[in-house]
Structures are given as C-alpha cells and as structure tokens.
Amino acid sequence: MGFRCGIVGLPNVGKSTLFNALTQTAAAQVGNYSFCTIQPNIGDVAVPESRLDIIADIAKSAERVPARMNFVDIAGLVRRASKGEGLGNQFLANIRETDAIIHVLRCFENEDITHVDGRIDPLADLDTVQTELMLADLESLEKRRFNLEKKSRQKDEDAKAALVLVDRAIAVLSKGQPARTARIERDEEKVWQMLQLLTAKPVLYVCNVDEDSAATGNVFSDKVIAHAEAENARVVIISAQIESELALLSGEERDEYLHAISLAEPGLNRLIQAGYTLLGLKTYFTAGPKESRAWTYVDGWTAPKCAGVIHTDFEKGFIRAEAIAYTDYVEHDGEQGAREAGKVRQEGKDYAVRDGDIMLFKFNV
C-alpha cells in the first residue's frame, strides 16, 4: 500500500533541491533499496529501517524489501493559485491526492538566490501557502453547501451530517485557521474525510537551512519551531545542499562527512521517518529464506486488516496469525528458536498488530 507526502513551497525555497536529493539518496540505497520513478515528480523511497537488516540476517534471507513511501514534488504555487493562476488548478489537484503535506520553508540567506518577495521570512512564506489552501477549501465548501442544505430540508440524514461538518469547517477557515484545527468526533471522521479538505491534511514543516546551521538550526528555523509547537506540529531541520552532496557519496565517505559536520544521520532519513510518523504508520515484518520484508500499516489495525496489505485474499480468508515480537525474534535467533521458547503467539481476528511484529498469516480462500 502506498502513502504519499506532497512537498510544497514557494519558488526558490529549496523544494526541488530537496526532492532531487531524496531521489538521489534512494537511487544510492544499498541492495534492493532502489528508487522508482513513477512520474517525473514522484519518488518512491524506501523507509529507513534497521530492524529489517537484522531480521534478514537471522532468517538468512536472499532478499530484503523495505517499506515504501511516495514523495511528490508539487509545482505551481504562486499567489492566487486558489483562483487558478500559475499552475493553480493542477497544483491543488495534486495536493488533494496526497495523504500529508510537507511545507518546505526557506531558512537561509543567499544573495545569489532571489526570493519572490525579496526577503527571508519562513512564517510569511508559510502564511502565503496556507492562505491559498484555505481559500481553495472555502471555495470548495461554499459550492457544495447549497446542495447539502437542499437535501437536508428533504430529510436526507447523510446530507445533514455532512452539512454540520461543512459549517464547522467554514467557521474555522473564516477565522484564518486550517481545517485540521476543527474538533472532529470519532463517529464524524468518515464523513470528514469525504470532504477532502486540503488544510485538513496533517503537516510537517521542513526548515531548509544553510550548511553551517544543519546541526543546530538558526534564527529562522527557531521561529518555525516556535510556531509548530503552538499548533503541535512536527519540524525537521535540513540543509538541502548538504543532502544533495551526501547523496553522491559512498557509505564510508558519507559517514566521514556526517561526522565532520556533527550530524548523526542524513537529514533525509529523519524526513522520511517523520513522514512515516506523521501519518500514524507502523511496520510489521515477514521473514523467510526467500525474503524478509517490511510492511506498512496504520497504527491500531487488526491482524486481518494488516494481512490485507499483502493481498486482499489474506484478509478475506483470514483464519489466524502467528506473531513473534521483534525482541523475542532476535533474542531467540529466529522463528525456530522463538517457537521452542514458547514466544510464538497464536492471534485471532481482534488482535491489534504491534510495531515490529514478525507475522505469519493463515488464511483460506
């Protein structure tokens, strides 16, 4: 199953440089961690996962297959994009197809790279992007409100439920706040998702800093962090320029470069992991001589739902699952040792899969 993060930002903030670094990094990933170009602006990137290598070594797997995440370089944002200017209509359509939005914010000064507004102010840039998305949401909601109100007068219960949420979203957006700040009850979530609001999507802020600020950040990124804390959002500090250089180095050279600039790991690893966390995603594994593979699922999914990630037949014909905790798998040197130690659990349809579980599904079609 694919999860897609859209990368947005004003011109000359480093958005495309960051995306290109992602694609180069993916292409350089060892073994089967290959990069796949689906379209010119979509990168299919492996999620860094150290546990997969350990599991594969224990299982003596011939192949190891990581979980994947899509990153989309969304072009075309200018002021009045919500009114169709620039590549506005295509821009908004591309964002609507994503699961989360990554805002790339310029947090560096460089006289050779002009800013569209002639100044460096990441929060003002964010406001420009977010305003266009909120205006697009308002226009979308106001267009559908008339029909919903008409159906509600005709006692259409689904329309009544949707109208309540439409009005709630309009109220929030009219105050200059994104739709994700609206309070949505659990039993309203399905209808809320159907509204497909751009500003209801989870967000991650990426501060693109100069090379000297990659490890510690700077005054610009500090402002973004303070803003993000106020709305309980996540921030990743990256130097897109450094990431571009790292992507071209071999493993040993990369490690030496990281050490020299006081970074524990590439910023892109943190970006990918943050995107994974942002969407509430977890990982379970399957392991055997042929391959060890990481599978993505949404936190809280039950065993049948997780089985369906492999194949829909696994979910439809689910009987039971065998599960081994990652720590037990490692401690007892694989499935056989875990089985002998009584660490292989038999789980049914109500079992909520845990992060790191090594799973074997039993099914009948």
Q: What is the fold's blueprint, element by element?
A:
Blueprint: E1 4-8, H1 15-28, E2 36-39, E3 42-46, H2 50-59, E4 63-65, E5 68-73, H3 88-96, E6 100-107, H4 122-153, H5 157-174, H6 189-194, E7 203-209, H7 219-230, E8 234-238, H8 240-246, H9 251-260, H10 267-278, E9 281-287, E10 291-298, H11 303-310, H12 312-316, E11 318-324, H13 326-331, H14 335-340, E12 345-347, E13 358-363
Parallel strand pairs: 1-5, 1-6, 4-10, 6-7, 7-8
Antiparallel strand pairs: 2-3, 3-5, 9-10, 11-12, 11-13
Helix pairs in contact: 1-8, 4-5
Order of neighbouring strands in the sheet with most strands: 2-3-5-1-6-7-8
What does the largest sheet look like? 7 strands, mixed
Radius of gyration: 23 Å
Secondary structural class: alpha/beta
End-to-end gap: 21 Å
* H/I helix tally: 14
Succession of helices and strands: EHEEHEEHEHHHEHEHHHEEHHEHHEE
Low-confidence regions: 26-38
Quaternary state of this entry equals: single chain
**Into which percent range does the helicity of residues fall?**
40-55%
Q: Work out the number of β strands.
A: 13
Whole-number mean pLDDT: 87
Proportion of residues in β-strands: 15-25%
- The backbone outline, from C-alpha atoms, is flat
What does this structure look like?
The strands form three sheets. A seven-stranded mixed beta sheet has the order 2-3-5-1-6-7-8, sandwiched between helices. Strands 4-10-9 form a three-stranded mixed beta sheet, with helices on both faces. Mean pLDDT is 87; it is low at 26-38. It is α/β, with parallel strands linked by helices and 365 residues long. Helix content is 42%, strand content 20%. Helix 1 (15-28) packs parallel to helix 8 (240-246) and helix 4 (122-153) packs antiparallel against helix 5 (157-174). It is flat and about 65 Å long. It has 14 helices and 13 strands.
